[in-house]
């Protein structure tokens, strides 16, 4: 199979395993392009992509923009902070107005869960979700899975634990859906106050003890404590969080075996992860960033050239 | 699909590859600065065979690579079909090399156009020469091959089917009809 069954990439929930596998399989081709002296192919020439970011973002927006430009798409950036949204325009009006300027694809980040779903049903462009509230962030989960696969060769049967504020994390949610589809065993670890209520239904194991979680894991995905999202309300202090759940070199070395450490960034050094781990041999944090551009190229290519 | 005529059989295939290898070496006076690059999928295997043949003759192997041209195709943009994208695997620097570009069949020339663009994005070669097993005519672009296994006159409703041991368990080139 070489074509996606989905028209938009809004999340990984209910996305068939074949689609996820196709995106992951296509990524190698784009990684190779990133190694070339001329990092550009003409595939999306003449297509226009709008990056519609209603929430601040640096790395995801740059990653998408690089991916778009490397496929030769025309790119328009929109930041809500300096826009008509400030003047009271609704989401649908903003989207329809931009679409009236004849764009082909929209990459959107929004603070409201389901914003992408809402617009994709009312507009003709193809939508790619770059994060909607605490709901999903599919390209981040895809790049995480791609990075894990690079190191372990497969996702099937791997034990992957997501550590941190699960309830508020779109990265966690997308990872859980994607990893389960691809046959990994998924667990979460954190303070119970940060677990969403529907985890058990999904078949996800829950740990409240970090050392037990590490024993279980081939791979850990350490989430950022989102200080700006009032995450602090779920535990007494950052120091206490670090003592209970912080990933330290000592804890990992005590395992006496290899373990792969991911982090979606940006890192709060010394809170959820120690510098020595982030910069150390277990970490694949920088490969994640490189893979991010390639995976977004793969998604843009597969969505943007999908046979009608 | 109906086979109209067998154009090349197993033995003919070997002889053809040998002749092409000699022609390439004669034109380029050896394998200094020579690189063989096959276009996926079947060009890849033809390139491997040619490289092996050249190594037999010269006593050492030329650089060998594979080019995937999916991202350079002009029909992808029109949403006609979505071919599978595969990896380009060229581990050497093609700058200042004489590149022998290998494909199985030369038809409209659009694949070769895409391959030329792809190569130019990878590096500035000294020259690019094209070798094909079969030239079946019906060009839509001003492109020609430097080395040709066989010229075959075809009509639009016909196709050249190349089968190779690596994927099809047999070496054969047939003229087939795609109209019933």
As residue ranges, the low-confidence spans of chain A are none
Rg of chain B, rounded, reads 16 Å
Report the top-level CATH class of chain B.
Alpha Beta
Please state the structural category of chain B. alpha/beta
Biggest interface, which chains? A-B, 26 and 22 residues
**CATH architecture grouping of the largest domain in chain A:** 3-Layer(aba) Sandwich
User: Mind describing the biggest β-sheet of chain A?
Assistant: 5 strands, parallel
Strand content of chain B: 25-35%
Helix content of chain A: 25-40%
In total, the number of domains of chain A comes to 2
Q: What characteristic shape of chain B results from the CA principal axes?
A: globular
Integer average pLDDT of chain A = 92
CATH class of the largest domain in chain A: Alpha Beta
In percent terms, what proportion of residues of chain A is strand?
Answer: 5-15%
pLDDT averaged residue by residue of chain B: 92
SSE sequence of chain A, one letter per element: HEHEHEHEHEHEHEHEHHEHH
Q: How many beta-strand elements of chain B?
A: 8
The CATH topology label of the largest domain in chain A is: Rossmann fold
User: Helical stretch count of chain B?
Assistant: 4
Output the strand order for the largest sheet of chain B: 3-2-4-5-6
Largest beta-sheet details of chain B: 5 strands, parallel
């Amino acid at each position: 199979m070489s074509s996606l069954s989905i028209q938009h990439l809004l999340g990984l929930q209910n996305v068939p395993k074949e689609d996820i596998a196709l995106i992951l399989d296509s990524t190698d081709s784009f990684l190779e392009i990133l190694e070339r002296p001329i990092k550009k192919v003409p595939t999306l020439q003449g297509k226009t992509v709008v990056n519609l970011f209603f929430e601040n973002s640096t790395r995801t927006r740059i990653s998408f923009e690089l991916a778009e430009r490397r496929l030769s798409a025309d790119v328009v950036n929109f930041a809500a902070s300096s826009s008509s949204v400030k003047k009271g325009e609704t989401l649908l009006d903003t989207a329809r107005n931009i679409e009236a300027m004849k764009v082909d694809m929209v990459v959107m980040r929004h603070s409201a869960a389901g914003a992408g779903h809402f617009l994709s049903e009312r507009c003709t462009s193809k939508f790619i979700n770059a994060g909607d509230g605490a709901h999903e962030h599919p390209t981040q989960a895809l790049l995480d899975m791609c990075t894990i696969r690079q190191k372990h060769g497969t996702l099937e049967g791997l034990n992957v634990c997501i550590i941190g504020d699960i309830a508020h994390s779109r990265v966690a949610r997308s990872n859980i859906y994607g990893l389960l589809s691809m046959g990994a065993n998924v667990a979460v670890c954190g303070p119970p106050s940060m677990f969403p209520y529907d985890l058990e239904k999904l078949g996800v194991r829950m740990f409240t003890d970090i050392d037990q979680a590490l024993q279980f894991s081939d791979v850990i995905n350490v989430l950022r404590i989102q200080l700006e999202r009032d995450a602090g309300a779920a535990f007494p202090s950052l120091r206490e969080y670090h003592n209970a759940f912080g990933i330290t070199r000592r804890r990992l070395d005590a395992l006496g075996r290899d373990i792969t450490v991911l982090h979606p960034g940006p890192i709060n050094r010394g809170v959820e992860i120690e510098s020595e781990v982030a910069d150390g041999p277990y970490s694949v944090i920088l490969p994640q960033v490189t893979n991010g551009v390639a995976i977004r190229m793969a998604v843009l290519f597969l969505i943007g050239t999908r046979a009608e | 699909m109906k086979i109209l005529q067998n154009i090349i059989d197993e033995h003919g295939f070997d002889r053809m590859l040998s002749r092409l290898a000699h022609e390439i070496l004669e034109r380029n006076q050896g394998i200094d600065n020579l690189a063989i690059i096959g276009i996926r999928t079947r060009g890849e295997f033809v390139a491997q065979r040619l490289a092996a043949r050249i190594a037999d003759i010269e006593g050492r192997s030329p650089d060998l690579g594979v080019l995937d041209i999916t991202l350079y195709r002009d029909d992808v943009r029109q949403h006609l079909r979505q071919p599978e994208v595969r990896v380009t695997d060229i581990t050497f620097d093609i700058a200042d090399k004489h590149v022998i570009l290998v494909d199985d069949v030369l038809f409209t020339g659009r694949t070769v156009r895409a391959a030329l663009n792809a190569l130019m994005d990878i590096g500035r070669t000294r020259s690019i020469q094209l070798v094909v097993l079969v030239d079946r005519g019906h060009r839509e672009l001003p492109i020609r091959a430097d080395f040709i296994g066989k010229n075959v006159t075809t009509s639009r409703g016909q196709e050249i089917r190349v089968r190779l041991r690596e994927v099809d368990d047999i070496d054969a080139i047939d003229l087939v009809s795609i109209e019933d």
